[in-house]
Amino acid sequence: MTQTIETPTTGTATTAGARAHAREQHGKTADTMRFVPAASAPEHLLAGMPDAGIPSWAESLAFGRYTTMALARGTRVRLTDSAGDACVHTLLYRAGALHERLNIADTVKVPWQAYPGTGHPLLSDSGRLMATIVADTSGRHDALTGATTLAGNTAKYGAGTVHSASPAARELLTLGALKNGLGPRDVAPSLALFKGTTVDPAGSITSTGSAGPGAAVELLLQMDAVLVLANTAHPLDPRPDFTGTAVDITAWHAPQDLDALETGHLVGPLAPEHLQALRNTEHDLAARSAR
Fold first, then answer.
1. pLDDT at site 29
2. Full 3-state SS string of 145-212
3. Alpha helices in the chain (DSSP H)
4. For residue 10, is it within any domain?
5. How far apart are CA 46 and CA 38, in angstroms?
């Protein structure tokens, strides 16, 4: 959230003055913030939602900041790189069973695809489908390089702590994990959205940057999940300065899309690996509900 500094109209030297000043802030907005209720968000955040859709999350996440949210199965999450220079490091955990989480190695290996895009499954470490990328106008994502670190950012930018001018993704993701009762050991390799990479025949990984302003990606959650997002630099960003822009986040409940995905009417017929992961999830949910 953007920090806004302004001169208070009332003195804050006393408790009464501090309270009055705090109450003056009620209803004010900033360029980057979470909107509560989500339906109160600016029109550009809610544009493109189904006419009958009710937003469950609306936020503009500043560059160098993190956020986290627990969302229900069947939620559709749209992230938009409005200004074209966001990099969103993404982790997912199963709500109510946080030991199960996004496994990037399987997310690349099982569907035989190193470059995530529309139709790509996001798999847990238990072989279950956590989410599917159901729309993507960016095509610039990275499932190979991981997140920036304190040591790496300190060497490149001079600092990497969460409160510095160049916070590392792993440090920010750790804060998000802590907010959900997890810790540093639970911060596994993440998926980076809006900053792509390519691998040459010799195995070298090269940054391909962003797709430009307005690119968007949408995830459909197959299970109740906790998302932890950090919008900060990519490890292979070639620029010497720590720079980037905000990402817009909107989520709404779309349970009908779960059936459309399984029947092939949302992103086309699912590959066998994707379909098996989906069935693993559905079998587990049915078993849990029968207990």
1. 81
2. CCCCCHHHHHHHHCCCCCCCCCCCHHHHHHHHHHCCCCCHHHCCCCEEECCEEEECCCCCEEEEECCC
3. 15-24, 43-46, 104-109, 150-157, 169-178, 256-262, 272-289
4. no
5. 9
Question: Within a domain: residue 112?
Answer: yes
Residue 219 lies in a domain: yes
Choose among 3, 29, 146: nearest CA to 87.
146
Instruction: Say which amino acid occupies 20.
Output: A
Per-residue pLDDT reduced to its tens digit, 142-184: 999 999 999 999 999 999 999 999 999 999 999 999 999 999 9
Residue 41: inside a domain: no
- pTM for the structure as a whole: 0.93
Contact predicate 118/135, CB 8 Å: yes
| Residues 6 or more apart in contact with residue 68 via CB below 8 angstroms | 176, 179, 180, 226, 227, 228, 229
3-state SS assignment for residue 121: strand
Q: Based on the structure, what is the number of domains in the chain?
A: 1
pLDDT of residue 272: 98
Domain extent, residue 110, equals 54-256+268-285
